[in-house]
């Protein structure tokens, strides 16, 4: 009974800590949003710039399809479907915690120390620091491409497939959030590894914009079993599009993205705690 009571007490403390973190995140992010909206013309221009930069990726795909009818056996509408799912999922994660990539800089110059003495979870502070509302441009661009794909793609829609689309978006955002946190935790050790992190975040979303059939099997295995980015869109989208599953996996894996997202977030949380405990300031 004593052990059960102690476990329950720990659960209550963790729940309170989580709520405290959300509150701190909301306050800090809100502060940066108010600061951003004080210069609305600048906000509009930077948001449009973010939109235009990400749109160039899809323009490149359109240029490829001006020369070919299919890419890896996928039509333009099917590639647009993959692109939209990846773009929106990553855009939501980047909007929420994209500031995590600055952690290496804070570790190097010692400014992370100022966050440690504040009465708020460090993860919430780092995630909300310099909250970039301009990143909405990426989300909007992804939504536009996804909307176009849903109109033109040839899919035999069922209730399960319809439900799977928003599940993919939310689960994919969770998976990308986990990658952001895990990459930030790695910077406690590497300190100057932002490019390594970008290979899995920005590089990962770029990879998922294309069909799995254009990549080597070793690469597909890596993003399925090592860093499970394939669960963002490749596997569930295969069910929606009626395409063969990568690596000949069973069909039920298309419904695993929520569980994969939870597992990834849990693992990233453990990595973050381990990295934060190992932090010893700059030594200067």
TrEMBL record:
The transmembrane segments are 43-65, 80-98, 139-157, 163-189, 210-232, 252-272
Q: Would you tell me the protein name for this molecule? A: ABC transporter permease
Provide the alphabetized UniProt keywords: Membrane, Transmembrane, Transmembrane helix
From what superkingdom does this record's organism come? Answer: Bacteria
PANTHER family (alphabetical): INTEGRAL MEMBRANE TRANSPORT PROTEIN, SLR0610 PROTEIN-RELATED
- Any Pfam family matching the protein: ABC2_membrane_6
Protein's UniProt keywords contain Transmembrane: yes
């Amino acid at each position: 009974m004593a052990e059960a009571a102690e476990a329950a007490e720990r659960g209550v403390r963790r729940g309170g800590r989580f709520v405290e973190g959300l509150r701190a995140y909301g306050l800090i992010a809100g502060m940066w949003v108010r600061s951003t909206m004080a210069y609305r013309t600048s906000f509009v221009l930077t948001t449009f710039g973010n939109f235009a930069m990400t749109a160039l990726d899809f323009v490149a795909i359109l240029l490829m399809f001006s020369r070919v009818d299919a890419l890896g056996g996928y039509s333009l509408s099917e590639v647009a479907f993959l692109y939209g799912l990846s773009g929106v999922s990553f855009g939501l994660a980047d909007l929420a915690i994209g500031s995590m990539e600055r952690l290496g800089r804070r570790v190097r110059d010692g400014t992370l120390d100022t966050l440690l003495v504040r009465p708020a979870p460090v993860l919430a502070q780092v995630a909300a620091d310099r909250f970039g509302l301009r990143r909405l441009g990426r989300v909007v661009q992804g939504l536009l491409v996804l909307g176009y794909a849903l109109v033109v793609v040839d899919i035999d829609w069922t209730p399960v497939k319809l439900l799977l689309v928003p599940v993919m978006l939310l689960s994919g955002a969770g998976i990308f959030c986990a990658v952001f946190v895990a990459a930030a935790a790695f910077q406690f050790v590497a300190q100057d590894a932002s490019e390594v992190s970008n290979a899995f975040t920005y590089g990962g979303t770029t990879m998922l914009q294309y069909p799995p059939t254009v990549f080597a099997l070793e690469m597909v295995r890596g993003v399925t079993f090592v860093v499970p980015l394939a669960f963002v869109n490749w596997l569930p989208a295969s069910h929606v599009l009626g395409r063969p599953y990568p690596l000949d996996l069973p069909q039920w894996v298309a419904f695993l993205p929520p569980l994969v997202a939870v597992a990834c977030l849990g693992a990233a949380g453990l990595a973050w705690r381990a990295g934060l405990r190992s932090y010893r300031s700059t030594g200067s």
